[in-house]
Amino acid sequence: MTGTEDEKFMRAAIEEARKAESRGEVPIGAVVTCDGRIIARAHNLTETLTDPTAHAEMQAITSATSFLGGKYLTGCTLYVTVEPCLMCAGALAWSQIDRVVYGAADDKRGYHVFCENPFHKKTKIVSGVLSDECSRLVTEFFKKKR
Amino acid sequence: MTGTEDEKFMRAAIEEARKAESRGEVPIGAVVTCDGRIIARAHNLTETLTDPTAHAEMQAITSATSFLGGKYLTGCTLYVTVEPCLMCAGALAWSQIDRVVYGAADDKRGYHVFCENPFHKKTKIVSGVLSDECSRLVTEFFKKKR
């Protein structure tokens, strides 16, 4: 997959992050693609649902597996604006997804802080796609909160 | 909390595991307690829901936070028949739960295989409660499957 295609789908994830922001949620968004099209879109809803498990990735995984009718995401790619936390990385491991593409690194709660590679051994990780824009969304959000 | 009380609540988690088994699911169950009473019960539903995130713990967390009306489980204990995986441990970290009590260790997919302590720094971990019974449920399940 070309960088341009990764950027195109990351833009869709950023669109999801903006939806989260408009609800007062930490602006993180995700999409899942399969065969070059988006099969799931989701954004962080932890405050709205008062549920600490309602991260964008978790909902995108549930939505994508529901769409495909199986509990695996082989052949799929997940795009997420911020590096997955340990919970989301663990969920992605169970899904056996082909690729995970994220934007901004998270040096506080990102999986890499705790564990070098929590993913399924066949999952490819790509980082830094549109990272400035992804990162800016979150930092601006917390600036406004203060 | 006394060992006897931990065993009492682990028995409720085992009851949940048996419900999973009767649905053809890997028999893992969980309950969440608060102030000495059970506020959430759940069992593994990954096959039924075709959702790799539908572990007993994840559903117990979602159910307990929904019951309490907040996204934290401070003051609560989660009992689960098998050591949480990385996904569930990560979710428990976000919930800031007081205690996690598990039965059988999981040397393949348990969090300890990947990471020494993925939990919130204030969370206390207790292992080995009714571990033989918890472990037997899973091993017997897979024996029958073969």
Task: Please give the structural blueprint.
Two copies of one chain form a homodimer.
Chain A: H1 3-22, E1 29-34, E2 37-43, H2 56-68, E3 76-82, H3 86-95, E4 99-104, E5 124-126, H4 131-145
Parallel strand pairs in A: 3-4, 4-5
Antiparallel strand pairs in A: 1-2, 1-3
Secondary structure: helix percent of chain A: 25-40%
What shape does the CA trace of chain A take? Answer: globular
Work out the strand percent of chain A.
Answer: 15-25%
Annotation, overall tally of beta strands of chain A: 5
Distance between the termini of chain A: 40 Å
Mean pLDDT of chain A: 96
* Helix/strand order of chain A, N-terminal first: HEEHEHEEH
- Taking pLDDT < 50 over at least 5 consecutive residues as the criterion, the unreliable ranges of chain A are none
Note the quaternary state here.
homodimer
Number of helical elements of chain A? 4
Main sheet record of chain A: 5 strands, mixed
Strand order of the biggest β-sheet of chain A: 2-1-3-4-5
Largest interface: A-B, 28 and 28 residues
Find the structural class of chain A using helix and strand composition.
alpha/beta
Radius of gyration of chain A: 14 Å
Give the key terms.
alpha/beta; 146 residues
Characterize the structure shown.
The structure is a homodimer of 146-residue chains. The first copy, chain A, has 146 residues and is an alpha/beta fold. Helices cover 40% and strands 20% of the residues of chain A. Chain A has four helices and five strands; from the N terminus they run H-E-E-H-E-H-E-E-H. Chain A has helices at 3-22, 56-68, 86-95, 131-145; strands at residues 29-34, 37-43, 76-82, 99-104, 124-126. Chain A has a five-stranded mixed β-sheet with strand order 2-1-3-4-5. In chain A, helix 1 runs parallel beside helix 4 and helix 2 (56-68) packs parallel to helix 3. The radius of gyration of chain A is 14 Å and the shape is globular. In chain A, 49% of the residues are buried. The interface between A and B is medium-sized, with 28 and 28 residues.
